[in-house]
Amino acid sequence: MSNKILIVADYLNGELNQSTARAVTCAQQMTPTAIDVLVLCDDGANIAAQAAKLDGVTKVLQADNAANAHPMAATLTPQIVAAAQSGEYSHVLGPNTTYGKDLMPRVAAKLGVAMITDIMAVHSAHEFDRPIYAGNAVITVKAPEDQTLVASVRCASYPAAAEGGNAEIETLSLDAELPTHTRFVNLEQAKSDRPDLQTAPKVVSGGRGVGSEENFKVIYDFADKIGAGVGASRAAVDAGFVPNDMQVGQTGKIISPELYMCFGISGAIQHLAGIKDAGTIVAINKDPEAPIFEVADIGLVGDLFTIIPELDAAVS
Amino acid sequence: MKVLVSVKRAIDYNVRIQIKPDGSGVVENGVKHSMNPFDEIAVEQAMRWKEAGTAEEVVAVTIGPEAAKEQLRSALAFGCDRAIHVKTDEPVQPLTAARVFEAIAKKEDPKVFLMGKQAIDDDSNQTGQMTSALLEWPQATFASEIELDGDTAKVTREIDAGLETLDIDLPGVITADLRLNEPRYLKLPDIMKAKKKPIEDTSLDELGVERAAMLETVKTTAPPQRESGEMVESVDALVSKLKEKGLL
After folding, report:
1. Which residue has better confidence, B226 or A35?
2. pLDDT for A170-229, tens place per residue?
3. Which of A45, A310, B153, B167 is the most buried (most CB within 10 A)?
4. HSE of B118 in the Cβ direction (CA atoms, 13 Å)?
5. φ and ψ at B61, to 5 degrees?
6. Spatial CB neighbours of A77, under 8 Å, sequence gap ≥ 6
7. From what superkingdom does this record's organism come (chain B) (predicted)?
8. Could you give the 3-state DSSP secondary structure of residue B196?
9. Which of B123, B226, B242 sits opposite A276 (nearest CB)?
10. Do A139 and B219 touch (CB under 8 A)?
11. Rounded CA gap, B133 and B97, in Å?
Protein backbone atom coordinates (compact mmCIF):
# COMPACT_ATOMS: atom_id res chain seq x y z
CA MET A 1 0.00 0.00 0.00
CA SER A 2 1.40 3.38 -0.88
CA ASN A 3 1.52 6.07 1.71
CA LYS A 4 0.81 9.39 0.09
CA ILE A 5 0.87 12.06 2.76
CA LEU A 6 -0.72 15.49 2.75
CA ILE A 7 0.45 17.99 5.39
CA VAL A 8 -1.64 21.06 6.09
CA ALA A 9 0.74 24.01 6.52
CA ASP A 10 0.42 26.18 9.62
CA TYR A 11 1.52 29.77 9.16
CA LEU A 12 1.29 33.21 10.72
CA ASN A 13 1.70 36.68 9.24
CA GLY A 14 2.67 35.30 5.85
CA GLU A 15 5.47 33.07 7.21
CA LEU A 16 5.47 29.29 7.40
CA ASN A 17 5.29 28.11 11.02
CA GLN A 18 8.16 25.83 12.02
CA SER A 19 5.59 23.30 13.25
CA THR A 20 5.01 22.41 9.60
CA ALA A 21 8.68 21.45 9.18
CA ARG A 22 8.42 19.27 12.28
CA ALA A 23 5.36 17.51 10.85
CA VAL A 24 7.40 16.82 7.70
CA THR A 25 10.06 15.05 9.80
CA CYS A 26 7.35 12.89 11.39
CA ALA A 27 5.84 12.09 7.98
CA GLN A 28 9.22 10.94 6.67
CA GLN A 29 9.08 8.05 9.16
CA MET A 30 5.87 6.67 7.61
CA THR A 31 7.59 5.17 4.53
CA PRO A 32 5.93 7.73 2.29
CA THR A 33 5.74 7.60 -1.48
CA ALA A 34 5.09 11.35 -1.43
CA ILE A 35 4.84 14.17 1.12
CA ASP A 36 2.86 17.11 -0.21
CA VAL A 37 2.28 20.32 1.72
CA LEU A 38 -1.00 22.17 1.31
CA VAL A 39 -0.90 25.96 1.76
CA LEU A 40 -4.31 27.54 2.26
CA CYS A 41 -3.94 31.30 2.41
CA ASP A 42 -5.20 34.36 0.51
CA ASP A 43 -1.72 34.99 -0.87
CA GLY A 44 0.40 31.97 -0.10
CA ALA A 45 3.34 32.44 -2.47
CA ASN A 46 5.92 33.19 0.23
CA ILE A 47 4.67 30.41 2.52
CA ALA A 48 4.66 27.94 -0.37
CA ALA A 49 8.22 28.93 -1.28
CA GLN A 50 9.34 28.30 2.30
CA ALA A 51 7.60 24.90 2.35
CA ALA A 52 9.21 23.96 -0.99
CA LYS A 53 12.65 24.26 0.64
CA LEU A 54 11.96 21.63 3.30
CA ASP A 55 13.84 18.36 2.85
CA GLY A 56 11.50 15.49 2.14
CA VAL A 57 8.71 17.54 0.58
CA THR A 58 7.62 16.21 -2.82
CA LYS A 59 5.28 18.96 -3.90
CA VAL A 60 3.69 22.09 -2.47
CA LEU A 61 0.07 22.77 -3.28
CA GLN A 62 -0.83 26.43 -3.09
CA ALA A 63 -4.56 27.15 -3.05
CA ASP A 64 -5.12 30.88 -2.69
CA ASN A 65 -8.59 32.04 -1.78
CA ALA A 66 -9.74 35.38 -0.32
CA ALA A 67 -11.73 33.38 2.25
CA ASN A 68 -8.42 32.11 3.66
CA ALA A 69 -7.14 35.57 4.63
CA HIS A 70 -7.69 34.52 8.23
CA PRO A 71 -7.51 30.75 8.56
CA MET A 72 -10.60 29.31 10.24
CA ALA A 73 -11.43 25.63 10.63
CA ALA A 74 -14.92 25.98 9.19
CA THR A 75 -13.70 27.49 5.90
CA LEU A 76 -10.47 25.49 5.57
CA THR A 77 -12.07 22.09 6.14
CA PRO A 78 -14.04 21.76 2.87
CA GLN A 79 -10.89 22.75 0.96
CA ILE A 80 -8.73 20.17 2.75
CA VAL A 81 -11.35 17.49 2.21
CA ALA A 82 -11.44 18.34 -1.51
CA ALA A 83 -7.64 18.25 -1.78
CA ALA A 84 -7.40 15.00 0.20
CA GLN A 85 -9.97 13.27 -1.98
CA SER A 86 -8.83 14.52 -5.37
CA GLY A 87 -5.19 13.74 -4.52
CA GLU A 88 -6.07 10.27 -3.14
CA TYR A 89 -3.99 10.78 -0.02
CA SER A 90 -3.66 7.94 2.48
CA HIS A 91 -2.66 10.33 5.30
CA VAL A 92 -3.66 13.90 6.15
CA LEU A 93 -1.48 15.43 8.86
CA GLY A 94 -1.38 18.73 10.70
CA PRO A 95 0.78 20.05 13.54
CA ASN A 96 -0.64 19.96 17.08
CA THR A 97 -0.58 23.75 17.31
CA THR A 98 -3.91 25.39 18.21
CA TYR A 99 -4.41 25.73 14.44
CA GLY A 100 -4.06 21.98 13.88
CA LYS A 101 -5.97 21.04 17.03
CA ASP A 102 -8.91 23.16 15.95
CA LEU A 103 -8.83 22.04 12.33
CA MET A 104 -7.86 18.37 12.01
CA PRO A 105 -10.80 16.83 13.94
CA ARG A 106 -13.20 18.75 11.72
CA VAL A 107 -11.42 17.33 8.67
CA ALA A 108 -11.56 13.80 10.10
CA ALA A 109 -15.28 14.07 10.87
CA LYS A 110 -15.98 15.32 7.34
CA LEU A 111 -14.04 12.37 5.95
CA GLY A 112 -15.89 10.10 8.37
CA VAL A 113 -12.69 8.68 9.84
CA ALA A 114 -11.05 8.36 13.25
CA MET A 115 -8.24 10.73 14.13
CA ILE A 116 -5.02 10.32 16.08
CA THR A 117 -4.08 13.28 18.24
CA ASP A 118 -0.46 14.07 19.10
CA ILE A 119 1.67 11.45 17.32
CA MET A 120 4.89 11.27 19.35
CA ALA A 121 6.46 8.16 17.76
CA VAL A 122 5.91 6.28 14.51
CA HIS A 123 6.02 2.45 14.51
CA SER A 124 4.60 2.06 11.02
CA ALA A 125 2.41 4.05 8.68
CA HIS A 126 -0.61 3.03 10.76
CA GLU A 127 0.79 2.45 14.24
CA PHE A 128 1.83 5.27 16.53
CA ASP A 129 2.49 6.30 20.11
CA ARG A 130 0.53 9.15 21.62
CA PRO A 131 0.38 10.62 25.14
CA ILE A 132 -2.69 10.39 27.35
CA TYR A 133 -3.38 11.66 30.89
CA ALA A 134 -1.25 14.78 30.38
CA GLY A 135 1.66 12.66 29.24
CA ASN A 136 1.60 10.42 32.32
CA ALA A 137 0.94 7.41 30.10
CA VAL A 138 1.65 6.60 26.48
CA ILE A 139 -0.58 4.44 24.29
CA THR A 140 0.36 2.64 21.12
CA VAL A 141 -2.57 2.85 18.73
CA LYS A 142 -3.27 1.18 15.43
CA ALA A 143 -5.46 2.93 12.87
CA PRO A 144 -7.63 1.11 10.33
CA GLU A 145 -5.64 0.68 7.09
CA ASP A 146 -8.67 0.80 4.81
CA GLN A 147 -9.43 4.47 5.43
CA THR A 148 -7.69 7.82 5.26
CA LEU A 149 -5.66 8.48 8.38
CA VAL A 150 -6.04 11.95 9.87
CA ALA A 151 -3.62 12.89 12.64
CA SER A 152 -1.92 15.72 14.43
CA VAL A 153 1.81 15.61 15.10
CA ARG A 154 3.22 16.45 18.52
CA CYS A 155 5.77 18.99 17.32
CA ALA A 156 7.99 18.78 20.41
CA SER A 157 8.77 15.16 19.50
CA TYR A 158 10.33 16.00 16.13
CA PRO A 159 13.08 18.33 14.95
CA ALA A 160 12.27 20.61 12.04
CA ALA A 161 13.11 19.23 8.60
CA ALA A 162 16.22 20.88 7.20
CA GLU A 163 16.05 23.35 4.33
CA GLY A 164 17.83 22.00 1.31
CA GLY A 165 15.02 20.97 -0.94
CA ASN A 166 13.52 22.52 -4.00
CA ALA A 167 10.07 21.02 -4.42
CA GLU A 168 7.69 21.90 -7.21
CA ILE A 169 4.95 24.40 -6.34
CA GLU A 170 1.60 23.72 -7.94
CA THR A 171 -1.21 26.24 -7.76
CA LEU A 172 -4.46 24.56 -7.05
CA SER A 173 -8.02 25.66 -7.44
CA LEU A 174 -10.18 23.72 -5.01
CA ASP A 175 -13.79 23.22 -5.83
CA ALA A 176 -15.48 23.47 -2.46
CA GLU A 177 -18.45 25.35 -1.13
CA LEU A 178 -17.35 27.44 1.85
CA PRO A 179 -19.66 28.28 4.75
CA THR A 180 -20.23 31.89 5.77
CA HIS A 181 -21.41 31.12 9.31
CA THR A 182 -18.01 31.87 10.85
CA ARG A 183 -16.42 35.31 10.57
CA PHE A 184 -13.04 36.54 11.69
CA VAL A 185 -13.21 39.63 13.93
CA ASN A 186 -9.65 40.21 15.09
CA LEU A 187 -6.43 38.76 16.43
CA GLU A 188 -4.76 40.35 19.41
CA GLN A 189 -1.19 39.34 18.91
CA ALA A 190 1.37 39.88 21.58
CA LYS A 191 3.98 42.00 19.83
CA SER A 192 7.43 40.89 20.71
CA ASP A 193 10.90 40.99 19.23
CA ARG A 194 11.87 37.98 21.31
CA PRO A 195 12.32 34.54 19.78
CA ASP A 196 9.08 32.61 19.46
CA LEU A 197 8.43 30.50 22.54
CA GLN A 198 7.56 27.39 20.52
CA THR A 199 10.65 27.37 18.33
CA ALA A 200 13.33 29.18 20.36
CA PRO A 201 16.41 27.05 21.12
CA LYS A 202 16.56 28.71 24.55
CA VAL A 203 13.61 29.49 26.80
CA VAL A 204 13.57 31.31 30.14
CA SER A 205 10.44 30.81 32.19
CA GLY A 206 8.96 32.32 35.35
CA GLY A 207 6.40 31.05 37.81
CA ARG A 208 4.40 32.17 40.79
CA GLY A 209 7.67 32.79 42.60
CA VAL A 210 8.34 35.81 40.39
CA GLY A 211 5.63 37.53 42.39
CA SER A 212 4.17 40.17 40.08
CA GLU A 213 3.80 41.50 36.56
CA GLU A 214 6.45 44.18 37.35
CA ASN A 215 8.89 41.61 38.69
CA PHE A 216 8.64 39.65 35.45
CA LYS A 217 10.88 42.33 33.96
CA VAL A 218 13.90 40.52 35.44
CA ILE A 219 12.87 37.39 33.53
CA TYR A 220 12.45 39.32 30.26
CA ASP A 221 15.75 41.15 30.72
CA PHE A 222 17.70 37.98 31.39
CA ALA A 223 16.03 36.23 28.44
CA ASP A 224 17.03 39.12 26.19
CA LYS A 225 20.57 38.88 27.45
CA ILE A 226 20.92 35.25 26.35
CA GLY A 227 18.61 35.55 23.33
CA ALA A 228 15.88 33.33 24.76
CA GLY A 229 12.13 33.13 24.34
CA VAL A 230 10.02 33.68 27.46
CA GLY A 231 7.48 31.33 28.97
CA ALA A 232 5.55 31.02 32.21
CA SER A 233 3.75 28.51 34.39
CA ARG A 234 -0.02 28.34 34.58
CA ALA A 235 0.17 29.84 38.08
CA ALA A 236 1.93 32.93 36.72
CA VAL A 237 -0.64 33.27 33.95
CA ASP A 238 -3.60 32.78 36.29
CA ALA A 239 -2.12 35.37 38.65
CA GLY A 240 -2.10 37.84 35.75
CA PHE A 241 1.70 38.31 35.64
CA VAL A 242 1.83 37.49 31.91
CA PRO A 243 -0.60 36.86 29.02
CA ASN A 244 -2.00 33.38 28.44
CA ASP A 245 -0.07 32.73 25.23
CA MET A 246 3.09 32.42 27.34
CA GLN A 247 1.81 29.41 29.28
CA VAL A 248 3.99 26.33 29.05
CA GLY A 249 2.39 23.03 30.01
CA GLN A 250 -0.21 20.47 29.11
CA THR A 251 -2.91 23.06 28.50
CA GLY A 252 -0.50 25.66 27.18
CA LYS A 253 2.47 25.18 24.91
CA ILE A 254 4.49 21.98 24.72
CA ILE A 255 8.05 22.94 23.90
CA SER A 256 11.40 21.30 23.30
CA PRO A 257 14.15 23.94 23.49
CA GLU A 258 17.80 22.94 23.85
CA LEU A 259 17.94 24.93 27.09
CA TYR A 260 15.02 25.54 29.44
CA MET A 261 15.72 27.70 32.48
CA CYS A 262 12.89 28.13 34.94
CA PHE A 263 12.75 30.52 37.85
CA GLY A 264 10.29 30.24 40.71
CA ILE A 265 8.40 27.34 39.13
CA SER A 266 7.60 24.51 41.55
CA GLY A 267 7.00 21.97 38.78
CA ALA A 268 3.37 20.85 38.80
CA ILE A 269 2.73 17.76 36.65
CA GLN A 270 0.78 20.01 34.30
CA HIS A 271 3.88 22.15 33.70
CA LEU A 272 6.28 19.21 33.41
CA ALA A 273 4.11 17.79 30.61
CA GLY A 274 5.08 20.82 28.57
CA ILE A 275 8.87 20.54 28.97
CA LYS A 276 9.59 16.81 28.94
CA ASP A 277 11.37 17.03 25.61
CA ALA A 278 13.63 19.95 26.50
CA GLY A 279 17.35 19.26 26.05
CA THR A 280 18.67 20.61 29.34
CA ILE A 281 16.37 21.77 32.12
CA VAL A 282 17.79 24.22 34.66
CA ALA A 283 15.70 24.93 37.74
CA ILE A 284 16.17 27.77 40.17
CA ASN A 285 13.86 27.70 43.17
CA LYS A 286 13.90 28.76 46.82
CA ASP A 287 12.32 25.52 47.94
CA PRO A 288 14.77 22.61 47.87
CA GLU A 289 11.81 20.20 47.95
CA ALA A 290 10.20 21.63 44.79
CA PRO A 291 9.27 18.79 42.39
CA ILE A 292 10.93 20.63 39.51
CA PHE A 293 14.30 19.45 40.90
CA GLU A 294 13.26 15.83 40.23
CA VAL A 295 13.34 16.44 36.49
CA ALA A 296 15.93 19.21 36.24
CA ASP A 297 19.34 18.39 34.80
CA ILE A 298 20.88 21.16 36.86
CA GLY A 299 19.28 22.60 39.96
CA LEU A 300 20.21 25.57 42.10
CA VAL A 301 18.42 26.39 45.34
CA GLY A 302 18.13 30.07 46.00
CA ASP A 303 16.24 33.30 45.56
CA LEU A 304 15.75 34.19 41.92
CA PHE A 305 16.11 37.89 42.64
CA THR A 306 19.66 37.42 43.90
CA ILE A 307 20.57 34.71 41.39
CA ILE A 308 19.46 36.48 38.21
CA PRO A 309 21.74 39.52 38.77
CA GLU A 310 24.64 37.12 39.38
CA LEU A 311 23.76 35.22 36.20
CA ASP A 312 23.55 38.50 34.34
CA ALA A 313 27.02 39.42 35.48
CA ALA A 314 28.42 35.97 34.70
CA VAL A 315 27.19 35.90 31.10
CA SER A 316 28.08 39.51 30.32
CA MET B 1 -32.41 29.96 24.66
CA LYS B 2 -31.68 26.31 25.25
CA VAL B 3 -28.14 25.21 26.04
CA LEU B 4 -26.78 21.70 25.77
CA VAL B 5 -23.63 20.87 27.71
CA SER B 6 -21.69 17.63 27.60
CA VAL B 7 -19.93 16.16 30.62
CA LYS B 8 -17.52 13.26 30.79
CA ARG B 9 -16.63 11.02 33.69
CA ALA B 10 -12.84 10.86 33.99
CA ILE B 11 -10.23 9.93 36.55
CA ASP B 12 -9.89 12.88 38.92
CA TYR B 13 -7.13 15.27 37.96
CA ASN B 14 -5.44 14.90 41.35
CA VAL B 15 -4.97 11.16 40.96
CA ARG B 16 -1.52 9.90 40.09
CA ILE B 17 -2.05 7.62 37.10
CA GLN B 18 -0.97 3.98 37.56
CA ILE B 19 -0.31 1.84 34.52
CA LYS B 20 -1.38 -1.81 34.70
CA PRO B 21 1.67 -4.10 34.78
CA ASP B 22 0.41 -6.03 31.72
CA GLY B 23 0.17 -2.84 29.67
CA SER B 24 -3.55 -3.23 29.09
CA GLY B 25 -4.46 0.24 30.32
CA VAL B 26 -4.42 2.43 33.39
CA VAL B 27 -5.82 1.40 36.76
CA GLU B 28 -9.38 2.71 37.00
CA ASN B 29 -10.96 0.46 39.62
CA GLY B 30 -11.11 2.03 43.06
CA VAL B 31 -9.75 5.29 41.69
CA LYS B 32 -11.56 8.57 42.26
CA HIS B 33 -13.45 9.81 39.21
CA SER B 34 -15.00 13.21 38.68
CA MET B 35 -16.33 15.46 35.98
CA ASN B 36 -13.69 16.38 33.40
CA PRO B 37 -12.48 19.83 34.61
CA PHE B 38 -12.97 21.49 31.21
CA ASP B 39 -16.58 20.25 31.21
CA GLU B 40 -17.06 21.84 34.62
CA ILE B 41 -16.05 25.13 33.07
CA ALA B 42 -18.59 24.57 30.28
CA VAL B 43 -21.33 23.79 32.83
CA GLU B 44 -20.40 26.88 34.85
CA GLN B 45 -20.71 29.02 31.71
CA ALA B 46 -24.20 27.64 31.05
CA MET B 47 -25.17 28.40 34.65
CA ARG B 48 -24.02 32.00 34.33
CA TRP B 49 -26.24 32.41 31.28
CA LYS B 50 -29.11 30.85 33.17
CA GLU B 51 -28.63 33.15 36.14
CA ALA B 52 -28.43 36.15 33.81
CA GLY B 53 -31.71 35.10 32.19
CA THR B 54 -30.08 34.43 28.81
CA ALA B 55 -30.60 30.68 28.98
CA GLU B 56 -34.02 29.31 29.87
CA GLU B 57 -33.09 25.67 29.90
CA VAL B 58 -29.77 23.89 30.32
CA VAL B 59 -29.54 20.19 29.53
CA ALA B 60 -26.51 18.09 30.50
CA VAL B 61 -25.60 15.02 28.48
CA THR B 62 -23.10 12.25 29.06
CA ILE B 63 -22.06 9.04 27.35
CA GLY B 64 -20.82 6.21 29.53
CA PRO B 65 -21.53 3.49 32.06
CA GLU B 66 -24.07 3.63 34.89
CA ALA B 67 -21.42 5.21 37.13
CA ALA B 68 -21.40 8.30 34.90
CA LYS B 69 -24.71 9.22 36.56
CA GLU B 70 -22.58 10.68 39.35
CA GLN B 71 -21.23 13.28 36.95
CA LEU B 72 -24.72 14.03 35.63
CA ARG B 73 -25.83 14.54 39.24
CA SER B 74 -22.96 17.00 39.67
CA ALA B 75 -24.10 18.87 36.57
CA LEU B 76 -27.62 18.97 37.97
CA ALA B 77 -26.23 20.23 41.28
CA PHE B 78 -24.57 23.08 39.40
CA GLY B 79 -28.10 23.98 38.28
CA CYS B 80 -28.72 22.16 35.00
CA ASP B 81 -32.47 21.54 34.59
CA ARG B 82 -32.33 17.97 33.37
CA ALA B 83 -29.92 15.41 32.02
CA ILE B 84 -29.61 12.78 29.32
CA HIS B 85 -27.57 9.64 29.92
CA VAL B 86 -26.48 7.77 26.81
CA LYS B 87 -25.69 4.51 28.57
CA THR B 88 -23.01 2.21 27.29
CA ASP B 89 -20.25 0.01 28.66
CA GLU B 90 -18.39 0.04 25.34
CA PRO B 91 -15.39 2.30 24.88
CA VAL B 92 -16.59 5.32 22.90
CA GLN B 93 -14.04 7.17 20.78
CA PRO B 94 -14.47 10.79 19.62
CA LEU B 95 -16.12 10.20 16.23
CA THR B 96 -18.74 7.90 17.74
CA ALA B 97 -19.24 10.37 20.61
CA ALA B 98 -19.71 13.13 18.04
CA ARG B 99 -22.36 11.04 16.24
CA VAL B 100 -24.18 10.60 19.55
CA PHE B 101 -24.03 14.33 20.24
CA GLU B 102 -25.19 15.05 16.70
CA ALA B 103 -28.25 12.87 17.29
CA ILE B 104 -28.95 14.52 20.66
CA ALA B 105 -28.51 18.02 19.23
CA LYS B 106 -30.95 17.27 16.41
CA LYS B 107 -33.50 16.10 18.97
CA GLU B 108 -32.97 18.87 21.50
CA ASP B 109 -32.36 21.74 19.08
CA PRO B 110 -30.16 23.89 21.39
CA LYS B 111 -28.86 27.30 20.45
CA VAL B 112 -25.45 26.61 21.95
CA PHE B 113 -23.74 23.27 22.51
CA LEU B 114 -21.04 23.81 25.13
CA MET B 115 -18.25 21.31 25.73
CA GLY B 116 -14.90 21.22 27.45
CA LYS B 117 -12.04 21.67 24.98
CA GLN B 118 -10.70 18.23 25.81
CA ALA B 119 -11.09 15.45 28.33
CA ILE B 120 -8.13 14.98 30.64
CA ASP B 121 -8.16 11.19 30.27
CA ASP B 122 -7.49 10.57 26.58
CA ASP B 123 -6.57 14.20 25.76
CA SER B 124 -7.99 13.80 22.25
CA ASN B 125 -9.37 17.30 21.83
CA GLN B 126 -11.62 16.17 18.98
CA THR B 127 -15.24 15.68 20.02
CA GLY B 128 -16.39 19.32 19.92
CA GLN B 129 -14.91 19.95 16.49
CA MET B 130 -16.27 16.66 15.15
CA THR B 131 -19.75 17.32 16.51
CA SER B 132 -19.95 20.73 14.87
CA ALA B 133 -18.62 19.28 11.60
CA LEU B 134 -21.32 16.60 11.54
CA LEU B 135 -24.02 19.18 12.31
CA GLU B 136 -22.57 21.62 9.76
CA TRP B 137 -22.50 24.18 12.57
CA PRO B 138 -19.82 26.77 13.28
CA GLN B 139 -17.24 25.90 15.91
CA ALA B 140 -15.37 28.11 18.32
CA THR B 141 -12.81 26.11 20.25
CA PHE B 142 -10.61 27.11 23.23
CA ALA B 143 -13.01 29.88 24.32
CA SER B 144 -11.87 32.31 27.00
CA GLU B 145 -14.78 34.72 26.56
CA ILE B 146 -18.23 34.40 25.00
CA GLU B 147 -20.52 37.30 24.20
CA LEU B 148 -23.98 36.25 23.06
CA ASP B 149 -25.88 38.61 20.79
CA GLY B 150 -29.19 37.23 19.55
CA ASP B 151 -28.50 34.76 16.78
CA THR B 152 -24.73 35.23 16.86
CA ALA B 153 -21.91 34.95 19.38
CA LYS B 154 -18.56 36.65 19.61
CA VAL B 155 -16.07 34.16 20.98
CA THR B 156 -12.54 34.99 22.07
CA ARG B 157 -10.24 32.03 21.58
CA GLU B 158 -6.89 31.28 23.20
CA ILE B 159 -4.60 30.40 20.32
CA ASP B 160 -0.82 30.14 20.02
CA ALA B 161 -0.51 33.59 18.48
CA GLY B 162 -2.62 35.36 21.10
CA LEU B 163 -6.35 36.00 21.39
CA GLU B 164 -8.52 35.53 18.33
CA THR B 165 -12.14 36.66 18.17
CA LEU B 166 -14.63 34.94 15.89
CA ASP B 167 -18.21 35.93 15.19
CA ILE B 168 -20.33 32.82 14.68
CA ASP B 169 -23.93 32.20 13.74
CA LEU B 170 -25.95 30.16 16.21
CA PRO B 171 -26.55 27.32 16.70
CA GLY B 172 -22.90 26.52 17.21
CA VAL B 173 -20.50 24.41 19.22
CA ILE B 174 -18.26 26.27 21.67
CA THR B 175 -15.51 24.50 23.63
CA ALA B 176 -14.29 25.92 26.94
CA ASP B 177 -10.68 26.66 27.76
CA LEU B 178 -9.24 27.14 31.25
CA ARG B 179 -9.76 30.83 31.60
CA LEU B 180 -13.41 31.06 30.56
CA ASN B 181 -14.43 31.10 34.23
CA GLU B 182 -13.79 29.53 37.61
CA PRO B 183 -16.41 26.92 38.43
CA ARG B 184 -18.23 27.32 41.73
CA TYR B 185 -18.04 24.89 44.61
CA LEU B 186 -21.14 22.76 44.94
CA LYS B 187 -23.17 23.25 48.12
CA LEU B 188 -24.90 20.45 49.95
CA PRO B 189 -28.48 21.79 49.42
CA ASP B 190 -27.83 21.95 45.67
CA ILE B 191 -26.51 18.39 45.69
CA MET B 192 -29.66 17.29 47.56
CA LYS B 193 -31.93 19.18 45.16
CA ALA B 194 -30.18 17.58 42.18
CA LYS B 195 -31.35 14.15 43.30
CA LYS B 196 -34.91 15.05 42.35
CA LYS B 197 -34.10 16.33 38.88
CA PRO B 198 -34.92 14.09 35.91
CA ILE B 199 -32.31 11.98 34.09
CA GLU B 200 -33.45 10.38 30.85
CA ASP B 201 -31.71 7.16 29.86
CA THR B 202 -31.07 6.32 26.25
CA SER B 203 -28.55 4.33 24.23
CA LEU B 204 -26.53 4.40 21.01
CA ASP B 205 -28.99 1.97 19.45
CA GLU B 206 -32.04 3.97 20.50
CA LEU B 207 -30.45 7.03 18.95
CA GLY B 208 -29.64 5.08 15.79
CA VAL B 209 -25.93 5.85 16.05
CA GLU B 210 -23.61 3.87 13.82
CA ARG B 211 -20.30 3.11 15.55
CA ALA B 212 -17.31 4.63 13.80
CA ALA B 213 -14.21 2.58 12.99
CA MET B 214 -12.03 2.43 16.09
CA LEU B 215 -8.42 3.04 16.80
CA GLU B 216 -7.10 -0.11 18.40
CA THR B 217 -5.04 0.40 21.53
CA VAL B 218 -2.15 -2.03 21.34
CA LYS B 219 -0.59 -1.24 24.69
CA THR B 220 -0.24 1.33 27.42
CA THR B 221 3.19 2.15 28.77
CA ALA B 222 4.84 4.58 31.14
CA PRO B 223 6.35 7.63 29.49
CA PRO B 224 10.12 7.85 29.30
CA GLN B 225 11.25 9.35 32.60
CA ARG B 226 13.75 12.14 32.90
CA GLU B 227 16.35 11.34 35.47
CA SER B 228 17.02 14.03 38.00
CA GLY B 229 20.38 15.63 37.41
CA GLU B 230 22.69 17.32 39.82
CA MET B 231 22.41 20.21 42.21
CA VAL B 232 24.98 22.98 42.02
CA GLU B 233 25.85 25.30 44.86
CA SER B 234 26.57 28.53 43.06
CA VAL B 235 25.81 30.60 39.99
CA ASP B 236 29.42 30.20 38.86
CA ALA B 237 29.12 26.42 38.94
CA LEU B 238 25.84 26.65 36.98
CA VAL B 239 27.30 28.93 34.35
CA SER B 240 30.39 26.80 33.83
CA LYS B 241 28.22 23.67 33.44
CA LEU B 242 26.12 25.41 30.81
CA LYS B 243 29.21 26.67 29.03
CA GLU B 244 30.64 23.13 29.05
CA LYS B 245 27.48 21.93 27.28
CA GLY B 246 27.75 24.80 24.80
CA LEU B 247 24.42 26.24 25.93
CA LEU B 248 25.63 29.69 26.95
Report:
1. A35
2. 999 998 999 999 999 999 987 778 999 988 999 999 999 999 999 999 999 999 999 999
3. B153
4. 20
5. -135, 140
6. A103, A106, A107, A110, B133
7. Bacteria
8. coil
9. B226
10. yes
11. 13
The sheet carrying B199-202 orders its strands as A182-189, B162-169, B152-159, B139-149, B172-176, B112-116, B2-6, B57-64, B82-87, B199-202
Q: Which of residues 269-298 of A touch B (CB under 8 A)?
A: 276, 279-282, 293-298
Question: Across the interface, which of A106, A127, A188 has its CB nearest the CB of B162?
Answer: A188
Instruction: Report how far residue A153's alpha carbon sits from residue A6's, in angstroms, rounded to the nearest whole number.
Output: 13
Q: Which residues contact A248 (CB under 8 A, 6 or more apart)?
A: A197, A203, A205, A231, A232, A233, A254, A255, A271, A274, A275
Mean pLDDT estimate for chain A: 96
The β-bridge partners of A4 are A34
Using an 8 Å CB-CB cutoff, list chain B residues near A18: none
Single-letter amino acid, residue A172:
L
Judging contacts by C-beta atoms under 8 Å, the chain B residues touching residue A305 are none
- For residue B242, which residues of chain A lie inside 8 Å, CB to CB? 259, 280, 282, 298
Prediction pTM value: 0.95
CB pairs below 8 Å between A and B: how many?
A: 241
Q: Single out the residue of B116, B123, B8 nearest to residue A134, CA to CA.
A: B123
pLDDT tens digits, one per residue of A255-275: 999 999 999 999 998 899 999
Contact A285, A295 (CB under 8 A): no
Nearest by CB to A109, which of B133, B232, B236?
A: B133
Which tens digits make up the pLDDT trace of A43-69?
999 999 999 999 999 999 999 999 999
Compute the distance between CA of residue A44 and CA of residue A171 in angstroms, rounded to an integer: 10
- Check whether A1 has a pLDDT greater than 70: no
- Chain B CB contacts of A97 under 8 Å are 160
